[in-house]
Amino acid sequence: MNPWRGVGKLSREVWIQCGATFINRSGTMVLPFLALYMHRTLGYSVQDAGIALTVYGFGAFATAPLAGRASDHLGAGRVMIASLLLSGVMVIVLLTAKSFVTILLLTFVWSVISEAFRPASLVTITELVSPEQRKTAFAVNRLAINLGMSIGPALGGFLILFSYPLLFIIDGVTSIIAGLILILVPWQPARQYHTHREQQSGEVPPPARPSGVLSDRSLVYFLVVMIPVVIVFFQHEGAMPLYLVNNLYLSESAYGLLFTVNTALIIPLEVPLNIRMTHWSHRRALALGAFLSGLGFGATGLATGSFTVAITVVIWTFGEMILLPGAANYMADIAPADRRGVYMGLFQMMFSFAFAVSGWIGTSMLENFGGSVLWASTFIAGCVSTLLLWRVKQKTVNEVRSEAPP
Q: Is the pTM here over 0.70, yes or no?
């Protein structure tokens, strides 16, 4: 049986959006090398360069709920297009900044504009496919992101040998091209899919409660219980490289190859894996993904060299491939149709928060308590999320409606 058979059922609009996402991510060069650019070209200290990245993180955290609301009121397609076009201009403008304050200000504005794309894209995918296709569509979207990110930073590292400004120009131009694709190629970003029962009866989802989205206990519970495992996941950008280089004495190049292992698994396996898991319950997929993530990072404390570290990467990569599309799919299912933007904005906000604190938590534990305590803690945190995710609502509001008698 063809493991990719479900992909052919996705709408043309999904492929157009994923194509634009791929082009945008293929040009992602400035952010991975921003600290290096500030330190080596502009002469700022490593600490000052790190502040710029922190400012970017704050911008991403702040824009998530705003972009979600804008997606609900203006349309997610319009938000995506505006984000791509304006962020392309902003990253080129950033190249002209020399003073520290100006760099921080432009970096914050760039982050707010650029990161608005994420929740809007999740909303669009939700509205372009049927509920049965969402997990597959989210996996295809992640495939476009991973393929693009496997090209952009690598190409950026090569272009640095010739000119840092080229990174800013290419990054900006690819964002603008991606935005123009969504403008010039005919598509229907506003298509709405509801449950099978709603399509048959002509019913529409009830309006969101006036008390606000935070009164949705399923939403708040899910976002909170996801935080421990997402903090664990982001250790690959914080404590993990320090531990591998300083404690296991691996080279920086060996650490870079671990990302190749991660990408080499995601590209051929994530989409077929999620197609096979289409009919899994939410709690089954989420709990398994969280457990594998915690197990993989926790096992890092038992690794002794490159080969054993690679095994741990394989384990948490499978957790990533199961957990992240499954989490987006759960959010799409619990969100009322008229509040999907707000829900996806809060979802992205949770990731931004976890990213912001993960580096400090991981590096502090590594420095003060050592690697054994750090990696044992990641396993425990993964297990905590696993147990709590097993308690998520088994049937979402939409699923209950679809089973209600006519």
A: yes
